[in-house]
Design goal:
The protein is mainly α. It has 12 helices and no strands.
Length: 326
């Protein structure tokens, strides 16, 4: 049974938004259960590796049979070693460590603004700095809205740090995670990497480097873990949702969404994630929604939509690709 391109694009958009929204709500809910941040990172990497590593090995099989030297990490990564290490550190376990640790300090509503909400800001700044991309005035205004929204949320928690609170730690971790993912995105653009192959590469790097290091630190009793005490069902759920869902399925559906709607309209669709995840935190987790969070969400969402809609009005030259199609 074959579906139309419109159906595939719409289904991909819905699945992507739902998984990205669920990632924030579920990660915050997991912080009050048995597993520690590093345990969840391990489950994420193992879950994604169960799908992506055999896929990557099979993907490169014809080239290996032809005698070509492809990939790295003993055939687990389809990218060269230098690109695998760079993207793996930023987009692999470092992003996951910062994000999941942040949920143990700050609520999901803060993550909604400071992670997916501020991602366009950091990506634009890094692309301007490293790739010398120009920033239109309209886009700069939208980024200004995003910056104000982030300051309303993160700045309030920083002021409360003097009162002994720990929310500010989570906010800083969320912003650092967003910077890591933005850096990963810029690296992909610099190297011209395919999204699926890059996801395979960061998963392979995490499996080869993080998993053995995690096991060593646990054996030496340097790194605490709750894997032996938590129910196996919780660990399995984290591996399925955080690994197979957040990494594999959403990675594929996001790529399909961009193919159908284009990067501009796709960004407008994913602008729903901050607001939906914040509302999900209120509905499912009982988190309060203060005025600064509401205004911050409005500014961030409005900044994303304003910047993207203005960018859509500016014609961009077509890029030549193999086959002669723009």
């Amino acid at each position: 049974m074959r579906f139309s391109s419109k159906t595939v694009g719409l289904a991909s958009a819905v699945i992507t938004v739902l998984i990205w929204t669920g990632f924030i709500v579920i990660a915050r809910a997991s912080a009050s259960r048995g597993l520690l941040p590093m345990d969840i990172v391990l489950a994420r990497i193992v879950g994604a590796s169960a799908v992506l590593l055999p896929w990557a090995w099979w993907l490169m099989r014809p080239a290996r049979q032809a005698g070509e030297k492809v990939g790295s990490l003993w055939g687990l990564s389809p990218l060269p070693l230098s690109q695998t290490v760079q993207t793996g550190v930023l987009g692999g376990f470092l992003y996951a460590i910062l994000a999941y640790t942040g949920f143990f300090f700050a609520p999901a509503s803060h993550a909604s603004v400071l992670m997916p909400g501020s991602l366009p800001l950091w990506t634009t700044l890094l692309a301007w700095w490293f790739l010398h991309e120009k920033v239109a005035a309209s886009r700069a205004i939208g980024l200004g809205f995003i910056l104000l929204g982030g300051m309303l949320v993160g700045g309030a928690s920083l002021f409360k740090a003097f009162e002994g609170g720990e929310v500010w730690k989570g906010d800083l971790l969320f912003m650092a995670a967003s910077v890591c993912w933005a850096s990963y995105s810029v690296l992909l653009r610099r190297h011209g990497c395919d999204a699926v192959r890059a996801t395979m590469a960061i998963t392979a790097f995490g499996f080869v480097c993080f998993v053995p290091l995690f096991a060593l630190l646990v054996v030496l009793q340097i790194l605490p873990t709750q894997l032996h005490q938590a129910p196996w069902s919780e660990t399995l759920f984290q591996a399925v949702f955080q690994g197979m869902g957040s990494v594999v399925i959403s990675g594929i559906t996001f790529t399909q969404m961009v193919r159908h709607y284009g990067p501009v309209r796709s960004t407008m669709i994913t602008a729903l994630v901050p607001g939906l995840s914040a509302l999900g935190a209120v509905w499912f987790l009982g988190e309060p929604l203060y005025w600064n969070l509401l205004v911050g969400l409005a500014l961030v969402t409005g900044g994303i939509l304003f910047g993207v809609r203005q960018a859509q009005a500016v014609p961009t030259p077509a890029l030549a690709v193999p086959g002669g199609k723009p």
